[in-house]
Structure formats: C-alpha cells, structure tokens
Design a protein that fits this description.
The protein is mainly beta. Among the domains are: 2-28 and 211-306, Carboxypeptidase-like, regulatory domain (Immunoglobulin-like, Sandwich), CATH 2.60.40; 101-177 and 185-197, Immunoglobulin-like (Sandwich), CATH 2.60.40. Helix content is 2%, strand content 37%. The chain contains one helix and 18 strands. The protein has one helix at 204-208, and strands at residues 2-4, 32-36, 63-67, 101-110, 122-128, 139-142, 148-154, 162-168, 178-183, 190-197, 217-223, 234-239, 245-249, 252-254, 265-271, 274-282, 288-296, 301-306. It has a nine-stranded mixed β-sheet, with no helix packed on it. Strand 16 (274-282) and strand 17 form a beta hairpin. The protein is globular. The two termini are 21 Å apart.
C-alpha cells in the first residue's frame, strides 16, 4: 500500500500580486546566502544539510542555507541528508508491464484529523493525463463509509499514465477539488493508495492574509528518498518554469528556501490552468529523483507524490 502524505500544503504568506504564476516563463529562483556554520550555534528553524555521501555524520561541516532576511534554515533541527538516502538514483527503473488494466483502491482521509477521518461520499474519477478536464473519465465511483473506492484504470507499457480527479462530498466530508498524480505509476494488477486531502474548512491562507486567484490552481508535491522516507534537500522545478515556489519547514512554509525540509514538501501557488512537467531533484547534486506530467485546474490542488524513478 502506498501512502501519500500532506504537510501544510498551501499555508503561504504572500499576496496575489507577488505569487501569481501566469505561465509566462518566470523562474522561481530565490536569492540565498551559503555559509559555513563553524560554531553550529545559528538560531533558526532550519535543517543541517551535510554533504551527500558523508556517511550521515553531523559535524557542522555541511552547508547552512541562510536567507537574505537572516532566517537560518540550515543547522538546528539535526536533519542530515548524508549516507545513502539518494544512493539508488541512476539505478532505478520502472519495469514495463504487459497488463492492460489494473484495479486501484484509493483510501481518502481528511488532513489534520487524529485518527485520520475517512472522507465519505466523495466522487473520484480516473482520468487520462491528455484529458485535463476529465471530460471522459476511464472510470468513476464514490467513496464508501471507510473512505475507500476502487477504480479500473488502463495501463500502457509503462503503467497508468493518468490521474485521479477528486471532488464533492457533503458536510464535513466535502473536499477541496484535487487532482492526484504519482510517480512511479501503477504497473501491477491491483494497487492501494492512501491520500490525505484538505477540506474547505482548512483555510490557512485566509488566516495569514494570503490571496489565491480562484481561476488558478496550486501544485503541492511530496518527494521521497530511496528508502521511502520523506526527502530532505530535494528541490522542485517545472516546465514551463513557474514563480512563487515554496518549501515547508515543520509547519512553516517559506518562499525563500531552496529545498525541502523534513516534511519533503514544496510546491507552487496561483498557477495558470494547463499542463506542466514537474521534476524533483537533489539540490546538492542535481540528481533527478522523478519527473511526472501533471495538470493544473482553476480552484483545485494538484497533489503530486514523487518517489525515485531514475
């Protein structure tokens, strides 16, 4: 079973004027200062980014990424991306499949609930990535009292090249519309995935004064490293390039970080509707973790789970 986590996906302190992605090719590069923390005493909310392949030792010899505002996102959480967290990259392959169909069971739960509350009565469609509006779903269904639904999907030689369109529900089970993508794709005859979704009552943007353009969408991505743990030190990019990229540190999103913290989470807000290619890579080495084609729709969250595929 695959579990797709969600960590403070859209809690961003910005305005529409500064966070609008119009698909005009603006790059999301953010100025940062790199410095060595010789004393290891920087005060901040960051992570220790040691050299990849250093055996995982934390000797304050790593790079502190310090933003131009003086916020240290570099040394104090003890998170180390050394060792072989990304040692599999370059040797991962997705086997071709001779199957033509698969049955995928999705378990949908609400973000911020403990224990995770199942989302009941939610409509789920299986869609081809070439069908951005999902006008012709491959199959569709409604989640049962356990928040589960099983759909049939068509498999190409490299698996299910599509996404799940989630919407609807009633009362506390109403979800913010979401488009679910994952890499690697489903290749086996039966698969189970658990996705955490947000509901309209979860509105951190309104609470902190950020403004979303209702005609645009949000991309939120979670990267994993080779052993399946959330990826630290991963960066996200798109084609065409987007501005307003963010990363989450703890429960705090920031527009000035250059890579993921312990949550493995980042993304882009106010993204023009359309098709994009999203990639995750190791920031220190530029080694690619995964790449997937995604769709963005106005008023929806495009949620992407990326595990090593290359």
């Amino acid at each position: 079973m695959t579990t797709h986590t969600l960590a403070c996906l859209v809690a961003l302190a910005c305005t529409a004027a500064s966070c609008n992605n119009g698909g005009n090719g603006a790059d999301a590069s953010v100025a940062t200062d790199a410095m060595t923390d010789a004393q290891g005493t920087d005060a901040g909310i960051g992570m220790d980014v040691s050299v990849v392949g250093d055996g995982g030792t934390d000797a304050d010899a790593g790079m502190d990424v310090v933003t131009d505002t003086g916020v240290d996102i570099g040394t104090d959480t003890g998170v180390d991306i050394g060792g072989n967290a990304y040692g599999c990259l370059g040797d991962v392959s997705t086997p071709a499949t001779t199957l033509t169909m698969a049955a995928v069971t999705l378990n949908l739960v609400a973000y911020g609930t403990s224990p995770p509350a199942p989302l009941v009565g939610v409509t789920v469609k299986a869609c081809a990535v070439t069908d951005p509006s999902c006008a012709t779903p491959e199959s569709m269904g409604t989640t049962d009292p356990h928040g589960a639904v099983t759909l049939s999907v068509a498999l190409g030689t490299m698996g299910f090249a599509g996404y799940f369109d989630v919407s609807g529900g009633t009362g506390a089970n109403t979800v913010t519309p979401a488009l679910l993508f994952s890499a690697p794709p489903v290749t086996q005859a039966m698969a189970t995935e658990t996705w955490t979704l947000v509901t309209p009552s979860f509105q951190p943007l309104a609470a902190i004064g950020a403004t979303l353009d209702p005609t645009h969408g949000t991309i939120t991505a979670v990267a994993n490293e080779c052993a399946g743990q959330l990826a630290v030190g991963a960066s996200f990019s798109t084609r065409p390039p987007l501005a307003s990229g963010y990363y989450v540190f703890g429960m705090f999103p920031t527009l000035t970080a250059m890579a993921t913290g312990a949550s493995g989470t980042g993304g882009f807000i106010n993204v023009a509707a359309g098709s994009y290619v999203l990639s995750a890579a190791v920031m220190r080495t530029s080694a690619r973790i995964a790449t997937v084609s995604v769709v963005v729709r106005g008023g929806a969250i495009t949620q992407v789970s990326l595990a090593p595929t290359s």
